[in-house]
## 1
Amino acid sequence: MFEKNMGMVDRAVRAVIGVLLLILAFTTFGGVWAWIAGLIGIVLLATAAMGTCPPYSLLGIDTRKTKA
């Protein structure tokens, strides 16, 4: 679908933040904030798993290490 445009560090940071937001959504936050944190956490985990970020594609950003 989309070409991969995220490096390993970018993917790892997104995965960690996504997991933390999901934990907060289920344990600490309530109401609308829990839904917002959960949705953002899911999106971060999904982009980390796929290795692609649609806004990066639109802006021409690529954080992968490229071989010269």
## 2
Amino acid sequence: MKLSQLWAVVILIMFSLVAFSASALAAEVPEISGEAFVLMDAASGNILAESNSTQKWYPASTTKIMTLVLALEGLADGSLSLEDTVVTSSYAASMGGSQVYLYDGETRSLNEMLIAVAVGSGNDASVAVAEHIAGSNEAFVEMMNQKAKELGMKNTNFTNCHGLHDPNHYTTAADMAKLGLYAITVPKMLDYTSIYEYDFRLDPKPLKLWSTNRLLKWYDGVDGLKTGTTSEAKRNLVCTAERDSLRLITVVMGVGEANGHFTQTMKLLNYGFNEYSFKSFYKANEMICSVPVNKGETDEVEAIAEKQVGVTIKKNNKAEITTTLNFNTPLNAPITKGDILGMVQVKEGEKVLAEVDLLANADVAKISLIGQWREILVATMSAV
């Protein structure tokens, strides 16, 4: 072999080794069994990994996430109370599948019914809640589909509030990730979906509810949301977990093996937490700076972050991440606490990665005419 040919072979081998080394170091998305999956960054809503995410599939009891969303929104806007008395209809009591064995005419507080839905995955409790809110299961389903439309769940159709099989009751992994992303922002959602056990009935026969989401005990950081299992849907799980300010949302659908929706979800969470980190700049409601105010009884107002300011990045990302403050100018009184003053942008170079509104942390009344004359007088005396 000629010397030139020998060097060509050596160079080829060197390039091959470098390529092999790079590929060996690059972490790959784990192989996930089932019909579809999604791994989502909760801070941005960006999908970090997916497979067949737009394939239509049956949600089973993950449907109850939407049922809880509508109920908890009612609590937040004051149209519902946790002390509301919910009456079980004969129709609700007739639900099969997963249930908490409500009887016709049984009354429970809305709080107890929501626990029965979130923890015990009670189909009967879901219908009782739906009827309490909307008057009928059918009217509640209309609310569910309207909310799905608002959330951009374009490939979802609900026909019931519990998830018992219906060929026209379907969704996708991508749509369920959107629902999960919204659901974790609804007040009390994680409070309910993180309950692991609850004594629902003491007599005549004790009934203790155990969460169907075993990852609440099996995986550090998991605090919601909901499983779903039927023979047609197989095993589904919409899950969320947080570690070191990084919150992830996972969806696995159509897993066949026993406990497979748990093991496959753990694979996705392991990948997400190993590969990504959350770079935080400001906490929600943290004071960022004071902003000058014109024509106000005070000269400035504190600006706070509406929510946590930060971005999820690859752990091997060495790029410089910076923040920029942008304010609406001029800022003139009156200002009401909560008014948007501007925004903070998180950037990588010139690329905007995230934007969070900056809010006024106090009211600033418009200065009175007497106050204006006083300021003029003070300014005049200072200039003398």
